[in-house]
Amino acid sequence: MTIADVIRDADTRMSKAMDALHHNLNAVRTGRAAPSLIERIHVDYYGTTMPLNQLANISAPESRLLVVQPWDKGSMQPIEKAIQMSDLGLTPNNDGQVIRINIPTLTEERRKQMVKVVHSSVEESKVAVRNIRRDALQSAKTLMTKKEISEDDERRAQQELETLTKKYVDEAEKIGKAKEQEVLEV
Fold first, then answer.
1. Cβ of 30: how many Cβ atoms within 10 Å?
2. 171-177: which pairs have CB atoms within 8 A and are 24 or more residues apart?
3. How far apart are CA 90 and CA 82, in angstroms?
4. Burial tier of 174 (Cβ tally within 10 Å: 0-12, 13-18, 19+)
5. Is 132 exposed, middle or buried (0-12, 13-18, 19+ CB in 10 A)?
6. Which residues are CB-contacts of 106 (< 8 A; sequence separation ≥ 6)?
7. CA 143, chain centre distance (Å)
8. What are the tens digits of pLDDT across the range 94-108?
9. Which of 156, 154, 132 is nearest to 141 (CA)?
10. How far apart are CA 125 and CA 17, in angstroms?
11. Are the C-beta atoms of residues 11 and 4 closer than 8 Å to each other?
């Protein structure tokens, strides 16, 4: 393993942390309807727990409406129950063919709660990036103690890892700010 491998691995892992942040923030409710809002709700279907997007087609035909069209009509009740039990505060309307979910406008208090969720997700991703940096620095230190690299190489690696960490922490902040504005948008 070389320093380049350590840095490349850290970069890849940090990039995946940003992907995970995007994925987590897609599930945070804003005033608009988005299929990603409910697609990860787990439904108990014939004794098996499955994500909603594996049981039904989810679409957003209007800005404040989600439509869930189950592939199996027998899954209507479990889907409806799972949506009601979720912490999203949504009320599904079942007409026997599809489940319609009106997305109400968020109250000011609920918006503030959602912003807190966004902040905690961003903070978690920044911690993940810093942990990746710590692991990479440890790998570089190990390479130096094994005399596979020089002290200068280790210092250069530290600088590169700091630059990389700053880049991804800033990106997490930017993603968080954008989502926060989306949540606060009336």
1. 20
2. 171/18, 172/17, 172/18, 172/21, 172/122, 172/125, 172/126, 172/129, 173/122, 173/126, 175/18, 175/21, 175/22, 175/25, 175/122, 176/21, 176/25, 176/118, 176/119, 176/121, 176/122
3. 10
4. exposed
5. buried
6. 29, 30, 31, 114, 183
7. 34
8. 888 899 988 877 788
9. 154
10. 6
11. no
**What is the spatial distance between Cα 149 and Cα 131, in angstroms, rounded to a whole number?**
22
Sign of CA dihedral 144, 148, 150, 156: negative
Give the CA angle between residues 129, 133, 138 to the nearest 5°: 150
Say how far apart CA 23 and CA 32 lie, in whole Å: 17
Which amino acid appears at position 31 of this protein?
G
- For tokens 């960490």, what's the residue? 165
Which of residues 89 and 20 earns the better pLDDT score?
20
End-to-end CA distance of the chain: 52
The full set of domains in the chain, from first to last, is 3-26+107-184 (1.10.132.20), 35-102 (3.30.1360.40)
pLDDT class of 138 with cuts at 50, 70, 90: very high
Task: Report which DSSP code applies to 72.
Answer: S
Mean pLDDT, all residues of the chain: 88
Nearest to 17 by CA among 179, 174, 185, 171: 171
**Mean pLDDT on 133-140:** 94
What are the residue ranges of helices labelled H in the chain? 3-26, 76-85, 108-145, 151-184
